[in-house]
Amino acid sequence: MDFRLSTEETALREAVEEFAREKVAPVAGDLYERGEFPYKLVAQLGEMGIFGACFDDKYGGAGGDYFMLCLALEELGRVDSSLAITVEAAVSLGAMPIYRFGTDEQKQRWLPKLCRGEALAAFGLTEPDGGSDAGATKTRAVLDGDEWVINGGKCFITNAGTDITEFVTVTAVTGTKPDGHKEISTIIVPRDTPGFTVGPKYSKVGWSSSDTRELFFDDCRVPAANLLGERGRGYAQFLRILDEGRIAIAALATGLAQGCVDESIRYAKERHAFGHPIGDFQAIQFAIADMELRAHTARLGYYDAAARMRADAPFKRQASIAKLHASNAAVDNSRAATQIFGGYGFMNETPVARMWRDSKILEIGEGTSEIQRMLIARDLGVPS
């Protein structure tokens, strides 16, 4: 496969790289320390067309594809994972289910504002007793006349409580299948719906300026027309969304891994010890070389998965490989960068301290590393 970027892809990557360097980097640390959502940066990215990069222009998108989104996420992840995950969740988890499975009326109603970054949407799958077992859904929705009545709760939901969040798409048990298994469907719940409550922001180890909350549904009523896709296909729909999302998370993780390389190179030139820049010492040189190796191979992994997705070829295994390897690379590189920075790497004022804190969730969110290994083995035909 030829992984060289097209003229359009190069222009997008360079535009986001410049934005991240000039607009995001100067304010990311302060936003992070205050736990403040980056509304201004989100609006600017919306004006640049990043939120609509992979959607059809008839819905206000830029007419690109998923790989374009991934390029943008990598460049944002090099500087600030909080902003990168805000974009990833808004597009891959928030808007994409509407784009993939919605009626034309649903697309026309919701997608234009989402593509412009004027509104955000969230993806309500995980539950307190579920975790990696996404099929353990307890939230229920009962059809009462022309309304769904929803009861239950969700947790760890990104972009659920911002001032510009328009709706959350949730999975809920809507009945029982003939084989006795749960019938799980997906339903769009607008934020101002009575009975829908958004909890306070979590206090998190990392991603401090992204919005993550718990959701509660207490006799929450929405129109029957808010069903997203075919009834009973909600679980399958979100498995597809998660397959795609793993490529996006791999791109974000690659950006974090590369950001650690960038910061370490800069510091190795500036920091002196024993009368020399620390970059003169072989131990530092080898550490940075290993970091670059991990970032480079992580990039190849998500490029490959995205290329297969673009070609409408099977990509489930490659998406899991990309996500598993890139998240490992992010954790390993952030740990190595912190070591290179020494005591300064333990200070929150340095970007590598944020990267170290942000990296761990990449091995957990949108499918843990253990889940990725299970999916890879299963796709290889290993008995399960």
UniProtKB/TrEMBL annotation:
It comes from the Bacteria. Its cofactor is FAD. Residues 122-220 form the Acyl-CoA oxidase/dehydrogenase middle domain. Residues 7-118 form the Acyl-CoA dehydrogenase/oxidase N-terminal domain. It holds the Pfam family Acyl-CoA_dh_M. The keyword Flavoprotein applies. Residues 232-380 form the Acyl-CoA dehydrogenase/oxidase C-terminal domain. Keywords: FAD, Flavoprotein, Oxidoreductase. The keyword Cytoplasm does not apply. One of its GO terms (molecular function) is flavin adenine dinucleotide binding. Belongs to the acyl-CoA dehydrogenase family. This is Acyl-CoA dehydrogenase domain protein.
